[in-house]
Design brief:
alpha+beta; 2 domains; seven-stranded antiparallel β-sheet; five-stranded mixed β-sheet; about 40% helix; binds zinc ion
Length: about 375
């Protein structure tokens, strides 16, 4: 199957300029193709082949009135016109609306990078006309038999530039069960699954609590060291040190210890997530249902925000999603208004006065008494789209 990956780019100023130019050319070419195609249809009542549009741009416009097209990779224009052709075909096939003009401030800056000349390097890649670009992480290696990445595109999200690429990976064929699995994520437990499996909140374990404690102690020590090394403050409250920070051997040592504890904590949490999500997906349900997390809303609650941040609930859901997709398991996010906690999984009665502290769900209608999160997971498992 083909997987896709998005990698953040670290371009130079010149490269960024070229990215903007290329995005501009792609948008221009797409719009040009759309307008030409419409005019052709009005005149002759037939569809203008996208290949003829490209020929016209290359042979007539590029050498004369549109010399600026030469400043960017030649595949930028080519692919943009092909993109228009594909969008138009989707319309003919009844799969989409007729393509619209790409407006400058509404459409996402994006352009195609020639896949044949795109080559992975140690800390980035080389691309046609753009040269070597540094990336925030290495590109995935192509496996044997694969020559190129599929459909490489460079996009801008308003802040950063990214490279999106597709690549082939083999996965074992798995036979799925007919189970619909509800997964309730939360604060008390990391996740409660409708097959009655509970995944603990790793932050409540002795090991993590000890590390957190050690971290706090060292952070206090470091703060004190800085304080003792401060002579006075400047007008804008910057400290003036007695000894330069880099000469404080003990301070540097403590700082290093702190970053090691941070790393350890991150590893423990990440491992726990991977273990839990892999185990859940390995039960091979036909679908998983999770709630749509209102992280922003929950973060406003001071008591909850730290617990949520360290639980990495978003990351948990992301892992479930990509691991499930590898096996062809359907991933459903319940509507954000779906009251998974309040409904009785036994009779469907809705309890309006359920409080956060009520750990057991008691139904006044059918009399059932059940763990609150387990009840929620059963409701998610039964969720109807
Ligand atoms: Zn009930």
């Amino acid at each position: 199957m083909i997987l896709a990956q998005k990698i953040r780019l670290l371009p130079t100023k010149e490269q960024e300029e070229l990215f903007w130019k290329s995005s501009g050319v792609a948008r221009w070419a797409y719009n040009f193709a759309l307008k030409e195609s419409e005019m052709w249809y009005q005149d002759k009542n037939e569809t203008l082949n996208q290949m003829n549009i490209r020929k016209f741009i290359n042979n007539v416009l590029k050498p004369n009135s549109h010399k600026w097209l030469k400043e960017v990779g030649s595949n930028v224009m080519k692919q943009a016109v092909i993109d228009f052709g594909l969008a138009r075909q989707r319309f003919f096939d009844g799969k989409a609306d007729y393509p619209k003009l790409k407006r400058k401030y509404k459409s996402k800056p994006s352009f195609f990078v020639n896949h044949e000349s795109l080559k992975r390097t140690k800390d980035g890649f080389r691309g046609e006309k753009i040269g070597f670009i540094k990336t925030s992480q290495p590109l995935p290696k192509l496996t044997k038999g694969q020559k190129y990445y599929k459909n490489p595109r460079i996009t801008h999200d308003g802040r950063n530039w990214y490279l999106s690429i597709g690549f082939e990976r083999e996965f074992e064929e798995v036979e799925l069960t007919d189970v619909s699995l509800g997964i309730d994520v939360g604060i008390k437990e990391l996740a409660v699954v409708s097959n009655k499996t509970f995944y603990k909140n790793i932050n409540k374990t002795k090991r993590v609590k000890q590390l957190e404690k050690r971290l706090k102690r060292k952070q206090r020590q470091v703060a004190r060291m800085l304080e003792n090394n401060t002579k006075s403050y400047t007008n804008n409250r910057k400290p003036i040190y007695i000894q330069p920070i880099k000469d404080l051997k003990n301070f540097q040592k403590k700082k290093h210890e702190i970053s090691m504890i941070f790393k350890k904590l991150t590893d423990i949490r990440q491992n726990h997530l991977h273990q839990a999500t892999s185990e859940i997906v390995k039960t091979k349900p036909s679908r998983t249902v999770m709630e749509t997390l209102n992280i922003k809303g929950m973060m406003k609650n001071k008591h909850l925000s730290k617990a949520i941040a360290s639980q990495k609930l978003h990351e948990f859901q992301r892992q479930i999603q990509y691991k499930a997709e590898k096996f062809g398991i359907e991933v459903i996010k319940a509507d954000k208004w779906f009251a998974s906690s309040k409904i009785c999984s036994n009779c469907g009665h809705k309890k309006v006065d359920l409080k956060l502290k009520d750990r057991t769900y008691y139904c006044s209608n059918c009399g059932i008494s059940i763990d609150r999160d387990y009840n929620a997971s059963l409701n998610l498992a039964n969720y109807l789209i």
